[in-house]
Write a structure and sequence with these properties.
The chain is α/β, with parallel strands linked by helices and 222 residues long. The protein is 29% helix and 24% strand. The strands form 2 sheets. It has an 8-stranded mixed beta sheet. Strand 8 and strand 9 form a beta hairpin. Helix 2 packs across helix 3. It is globular and about 55 Å long.
């Protein structure tokens, strides 16, 4: 058993920065292949340049007890790489059939990581629903997965910047539950606040406290 969390938001809203307090028992599958925007405290950073390398890394982590927290940064870049690979392998509708299959396979692979907290970071898009209301969701190419990515996660956070009252800079926050516009979600009673600090290490501590057992014990009891 594991717990999958999705963290969505626009560029520059603090998604990657939220990893700053994670240490050596956490690993980033760095599909973006970018420098992390903080000084690492031992967080392991693995650059990923293809979907094959990503699935290979996930498979290696399946039986690895060294890492308790796994972060994929980002789902958006994965989709871009995946689509390019699919266009090289297939033609016409087969491109999208292969693309949709691999997105399904990705989340199945992530769900197979036992005894771990899995965080998937990604960019969002803003759309209008049938009633003309604005909605925001994880961005994904292809119609089959539109609005469906969040269903793979137990927790969904959306990053948000708030200007400080003194006018000096901004605060980086996560939204914990839906406001009718953002489809954020967390289990009832897990977070008392609508806005929390964007700190994944602190979120991991909340997960531990909320379930009152380590993920290993939960897995053994399943």
């Amino acid at each position: 058993m594991n717990l999958i969390t999705i963290i969505g938001g626009g560029s520059g809203t603090g998604k990657s920065y939220s990893l700053r307090n994670l240490a050596g028992d956490a690993v980033v599958l760095n599909v973006e292949r970018k420098m992390l925007p903080f000084q690492s405290k031992g967080l392991v950073n693995v650059p990923i340049n293809s979907t094959f390398k990503l699935f290979e890394a996930i498979n290696r982590l399946r039986d690895n007890d060294e890492f308790r927290t796994v972060i994929m940064d980002s789902f958006s870049e994965f989709c871009d790489i995946l689509l390019a690979e699919c266009k090289n392998k297939a033609k016409g509708f087969d491109v999208w059939n292969l693309y949709n299959t691999e997105i399904f396979n990705l989340f199945q692979a992530l769900k197979s990581l036992k005894n771990k907290y899995v965080f998937v970071l990604g960019h969002t898009e803003t759309l209008m629903d049938a009633d003309g209301e604005r909605i925001q969701r994880m961005k994904v190419k292809g119609r089959e997965n539109e609005g469906m990515i969040e269903k793979n996660a137990t927790c969904v956070f959306f990053s948000k910047t708030i200007r400080r009252e003194d006018g000096k800079g901004v605060e980086y926050k996560f939204i914990t539950n839906t406001d009718g516009y953002l489809p954020a979600k967390t289990p009832f009673g897990m977070f008392k606040e609508f806005l929390i600090d964007n700190d994944v290490a602190s979120i991991v501590k909340v997960y531990d406290s909320f379930y009152r057992e380590s993920p290993i014990k939960l897995a053994d009891a399943a």
